[in-house]
């Protein structure tokens, strides 16, 4: 009798463990689309989990334990904020020179699809610093440089601690160029023949504001694909896509996805979720749990 009680206790504990494991896996399945990275909301068209959001923005964001990053061919840029109403994302390059720090030579490059659907906004400018007299933007492509709210190269070199070095080394004011994204998109810093660059956003509000108070970084303008996401969200679903075909999906549950909305989806109970789950390991655990319970009942007889 003592042996039977010991076996029964062992199987009871095993059953409880297996059920708890199943419950934890269930929560992981249902939480496939995270909607926050630290304090930054992650909404359509963006995502930090594959299969969520719009396929055009796939693999563009990465969430670490402390920061959200925008991934490009030239590096990872820290996301400072996302404004879904204005459809803008503000990013900062930790390796970029600013008014207070001089960083090594660096290029900014985006992929073709990024340049098409989330390019730098018109009020983001790139400042090419310490350009040689032979620089293309001072000769053949001189028209690519423009006036920036009345600011000048003299002001930049005179106000910024980091850029004063170029003034001191040349004993003059080296050329600089205020330009748009199209210039750095097609020409590297080597071709431009400028040693450094920095970028500033919200430039339409910087008239009369000195370089020390400029907003350094980039503001990107994104477009939202019209795929009926609003309809999906209102029906209780999450906008996403099939990871193999990249066809748009409305993610309703682990067992019921729809093309547009979840109105036709049915209520799914705990056991039903596991019978239809695509995770073989969970199905095995479910069977083992049932077997343990049955064996425990037999031992009690």
Describe the structure.
The structure is a single chain. A hairpin with a 2-residue loop joins strand 1 and strand 2 (40-41). The strands form four sheets. The protein has a five-stranded antiparallel beta sheet with strand order 3-4-5-6-11, with no helix packed on it. A four-stranded antiparallel beta sheet has the order 8-7-9-10. A three-stranded antiparallel beta sheet has the order 12-13-14. Helix 1 packs antiparallel against helix 9 and helix 3 (153-159) crosses helix 4 (164-170). The chain is elongated. Residues 20-31 and 265-282 have low confidence and may be disordered. 29% of the residues are buried. Helix content is 31%, strand content 21%. It has nine helices and 14 strands. With 301 residues, the chain is an alpha+beta fold.
């Amino acid at each position: 009798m003592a042996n039977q009680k010991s076996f029964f206790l062992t199987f009871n504990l095993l059953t409880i463990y297996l059920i708890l494991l199943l419950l934890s896996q269930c929560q992981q399945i249902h939480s496939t689309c995270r909607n926050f990275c630290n304090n930054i909301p992650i909404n359509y068209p963006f995502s930090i989990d594959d299969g969520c959001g719009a396929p055009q923005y796939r693999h563009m964001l990465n969430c670490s334990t402390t920061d959200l990053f925008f991934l490009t061919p030239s590096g990872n840029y820290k996301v400072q904020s996302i404004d879904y109403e204005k459809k803008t994302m503000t990013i900062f390059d930790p390796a970029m020179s600013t008014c207070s720090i001089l960083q090594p030579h660096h290029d900014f490059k985006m992929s073709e699809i990024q340049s098409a659907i989330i390019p730098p906004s018109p009020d983001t400018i790139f400042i090419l610093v310490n350009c040689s007299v032979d620089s293309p933007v001072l000769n053949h492509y001189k028209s690519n440089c423009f006036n920036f709210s009345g600011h000048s190269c003299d002001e930049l070199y005179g106000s910024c601690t980091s850029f004063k070095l170029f003034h001191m080394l040349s004993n003059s004011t080296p050329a600089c160029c205020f330009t748009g994204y199209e210039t750095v998109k097609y020409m590297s810093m080597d071709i431009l023949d400028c040693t450094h660059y920095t970028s500033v956003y919200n430039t339409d509000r910087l008239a009369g504001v000195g370089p020390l108070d400029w907003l350094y970084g980039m503001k990107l303008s994104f477009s939202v694909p019209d795929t009926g996401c609003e309809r999906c969200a209102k029906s209780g679903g999450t906008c996403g896509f099939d990871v193999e075909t990249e066809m748009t999906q409305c993610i309703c549950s682990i067992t019921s996805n729809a093309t547009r909305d979840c109105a036709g989806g049915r209520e799914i109970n705990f056991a039903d979720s596991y019978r239809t789950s695509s995770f073989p390991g969970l199905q095995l655990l479910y069977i083992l749990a049932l077997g343990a319970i049955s064996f425990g009942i037999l031992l009690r007889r």
